[in-house]
Amino acid sequence: MVEQKGKELRERYEREALIHLDALMRTASRMTKSESDAEDLVQETMLKAYRFFDKFEAGTNCKAWLFKIMTNIFINNYRSRSKAPESVAIEDIDDGFLYGQLAENYGVTDPEKQFLSKIIDDDIQNAISELPEDFRLVVVLSFLEGFSYREIADITGLHIGTVKSRLYRGRKLLQKSLLEYALRSGHIREPMN
Amino acid sequence: MNCKQALQLLYDVLDREASRIETAGVEKHLKSCRPCLATYEFERMFQTLIVNKSQNVEDNGILKDRIRAQLDAIDAAG
Lengths: 193, 78
What we know:
The complex is a heterodimer. By secondary structure, chain A is mostly helical. Chain A is built from 10 helices and no strands. Chain B is an all-alpha fold. In chain B, helix 3 packs across helix 4 (34-52). Chain B has helices at residues 3-8, 10-14, 20-32, 34-52, 61-77. Chain B has one domain (3-77). Classes of the chains: A mainly alpha, B mainly alpha. Chain A binds chain B through residues 6, 10, 13, 18, 21-22, 25-26, 29, 39, 42-43, 46-47, 50-51, 97-100, 111-112, 116, 119, 121, 124-125, 128, 142-144, 148-149, 164, 167-168, 171, 174-175, and chain B through 7, 10-11, 15-17, 38-39, 42-43, 45-47, 49-51, 53-55, 57-58, 60, 63-64, 66-68, 70-71, 74-75, 78.
């Protein structure tokens, strides 16, 4: 009887939890910036989830539940081992939109062709990885995993307003670094004064 | 809805977090405002680009096997 119950739990875990392994790895490798740390983090998450799986309410959002477990482990055990504060010049972030800046400051008339189509995969991955950790977490959960603001608030324990403002700044920082790459590689030219 | 209000809702709309009334208001504004429409389209394309280029998944088969082996150990211990 007990054995039967254990078997059912394991089967349900395989079906509902283990299928999110790839998504967990995708986020974990961006957060730890190391494949082996990401594997350790995901493994720890999956085992912890298994131990508590009988407490997980069937039919609720298993992916969000797993990400919440993983985020907790990440924050407690993995986050910036170097205690150096990640200083971001927040004041630096322009409140305008990139589309307008490209046109007004750089004379870009077709931003899709002159900017977006020139962005390569590596630039995007580097720009994400350069984001300060707090911003990177919400950007990855929203952009890559498609969680709603409410789900991200639940996963991270942040107030929903904080989620929104971090996502906003994260986006602006992403755009800023990709603009810098475009300037460096000469796809867009600095304005002549 | 004016330009300022429409642009304030931009990311809420892109993230599908805006209410139906807000989204409808934005759509109505965009029909008659080309600058806002251009900004919306650019931001949407930017987001799509980031999302699409980040979906690649490595083969995690070895990790999955390792986790399954540990699940077996937990099951065996009871």
